[in-house]
Amino acid sequence: MISFSSVQPSPAQNPTATAAASTATRTSLLPHHYHSNKLSFIPPPFLQPADLSRRHYHHHRIRAIDAAQPYDYEAQLINRFTQSTKLKIAIIGFGNFGQFLAKAFIRQGHTVFAHSRSDYSSIAQSLGAAFFFDTHDLCEQHPDVILLCTSIISTESVLKSLPIQRLRRNTLFVDVLSVKEFPKNIFLQFLPAHFDILCTHPMFGPESGKNSWQNLAFVFDKVRIGNEENRLTRVETFLDIFKKEGCRMVEMTCAEHDKYAAGSQFITHTMGRILEKLQLDSTPINTKGYETLLNLVENTSSDSFDLYYGLFMYNKNAMEQLERLDLAFESLKKELFGHLHEVLRKQLFGKSEEIPRLVLAKLPKNGTPLLPASKSETVVNNNS
Ligand code: NAP
Asked: Where in the sequence is the domain holding 167, given as residue range(s)?
């Protein structure tokens, strides 16, 4: 097991990661009453304002300026330090999407700690994040935010495996899963009441958001946020990351999200995966519409099957959408074949012509079930 200190780059190699590491180490050296009794906390000389939660800073500064200040002086002071606050964000699950998010966090000056089942230490180092093989070591750095970015299907076991007793008592837990009611429920089930919970879903990925996040939707639900100022500020600071990137911020409940997402995102992924199975090729005469389909296949196939399976398994509305899709396809075929009148069929195929068995099989005949048939199979039509 390699600890955090053994993977730290030298200052020359990676100043960001080193700064992150030293901030983390300093914070982990704080006395116990830092966590349990905020009023008795005295900031050590090495702790800079950016290291402090706004509440701690607020207590010590505001009490010193009680007298004769302009009306909004305190508010300005709070804002000044709130706006400059940088978060320590621990990304659990440093795969495709975790790394994608880390780049934006680091670009905006936040400190990123990463942990994953696989060894991403060199990728983390190249991005300016500190990689932890051991979640105990990571939690002891007291991140402000634990961001769950694992596959939907592994989330519950990953969450249960975290040594949350090593975290600060009101740490903010965030998830970015593509389904929302499921993580909300497991957070509420497994996290003690003193942890804050924010459920989010960036409605874009490394492919669709590779150039910019401008106007891309970011869904969030503040499931449980303590009402102290520093906790309210911390959640806003986290949301600000996405606002600053230009995202369209959409606040809605997890249940609403799952309803919309089943009818939009799950359908999109399903269509992409169906088309992928057709192995569509680009042609010299591609239409714009066809190009769109090829792009859809490319977008959806770059996501893992785990992700797609998670959209199905962990969104209770997905099954209904799958059935609707099935019905829609059947109804469309019936509509097409219903127009294929008997006379027209005779005109088209003649009396003794060979009719592709597939076509015959699919024609609605007194409600008989539709038969599967291979594309190449043909049958001599003696009936028409
Ligand atoms: P994913 O296949 O959904 O998840 C991959 C991540 O899950 C990796 O970090 C992987 O760790 C981890 N993981 C998988 N199985 C695990 C297990 N049994 N135990 C521990 N960790 C496990 O692909 P993704 O695209 O990176 O998505 C991550 C999360 O972001 C998902 O919840 C997804 O719904 C959400 N999301 C993705 C997108 C997107 O466009 N990709 C957009 C919005 C939200 P290792 O790599 O270390 O094995």
From this structure: 88-252
Could you tell me the distance, in angstroms and rounded to a whole number, from the CA of residue 364 to the centre of ligand 1? Answer: 44
- Does this model's pTM top 0.85? My answer is no
Using DSSP's 3-state secondary structure scheme, residue 356 falls into: strand
Clarify whether residues 65 and 94 are in a common domain. no
Indicate if 179 and 152 belong to the same structural domain. yes
Q: What is residue 352's DSSP assignment?
A: S
Residues 6 or more apart in contact with residue 382 via CB below 8 angstroms: 352
Across residues 132-151, what is the average pLDDT? 98
Q: What is the pLDDT of residues 291-338, one digit of tens each?
A: 999 999 998 998 999 999 999 999 999 999 999 999 999 999 988 888
Distance 12 CA to ligand 1 centre (A): 32
* 234 alpha carbon – ligand 1 mean position (Å): 25
Q: Nearest 10 degrees: CA dihedral of 170, 176, 178, 183?
A: -20
Nearest-atom index, ligand 1, CA of 209: 40
Phi and psi at residue 350, to the nearest 5°: 70, 170
